[in-house]
Amino acid sequence: MLAAASAHGVPRRRRSGRVRVRGRDDGKRLRAPELGAELGERATLVQFSSAFCAPCRATRRVLDEVAGLVPGVAHVEIDAEAHLDLVRRLEILRTPTVLVLDADGRVVRRAAGQPRKADVIAALGEAM
Q: Where is the Thioredoxin domain (predicted)?
């Protein structure tokens, strides 16, 4: 969404609380040792959180629910502050950030912000 033009006449983007979704992160792959948990048989939902993040708690509930509904899907939550090397490597800029991995650990989708259940299910369809 575009806001009013800046003083120089160039449009500025308005910041909103909406989730930003990106497509494939080619070449980025995660393995069980990096995650501290096993990958799901069909897909894995990886959530980067921080301790005092209210949207992170809501995101945890949504991802747990989806992982419980879809067979072969695992949900892994990672404390961003405790895993700064992984945060930098994956260019995680805010919490919550959710990565959807396929069965081989390749990042197929990512979203920053609190996702909707329907969006998570749709992203899983792409991973499986």
A: 42-122
Its pTM stands at 0.79
Q: Kindly list the structural domains of the chain, giving each domain's residue range(s) and its CATH number in brackets, ordered by start.
A: 19-127 (3.40.30.10)
Written as six digits, the tokens of 112 are 């920053």
CB neighbour burial string for 27-60, b if at least 16 within 10 angstroms, e if fewer:
ebebeeebbeeebbeebbbbbbbeeebebbeebb
Bigger pLDDT: 117 vs 18: 117
- How far apart CA 2 and CA 97 sit, in angstroms, is 23
Percent residues over pLDDT 70 in the chain: 79
Element counts in the chain: helices (H) and strands (E): 4, 7
Strand pairing of 2-5 and 11-13?
Answer: antiparallel
- For the stretch 90-113, pLDDT in tens is 999 999 999 999 999 999 999 999
Task: Scan for tokens 């070449």, then name that residue.
Answer: 27
CB 100 within 8 A of CB 48: no
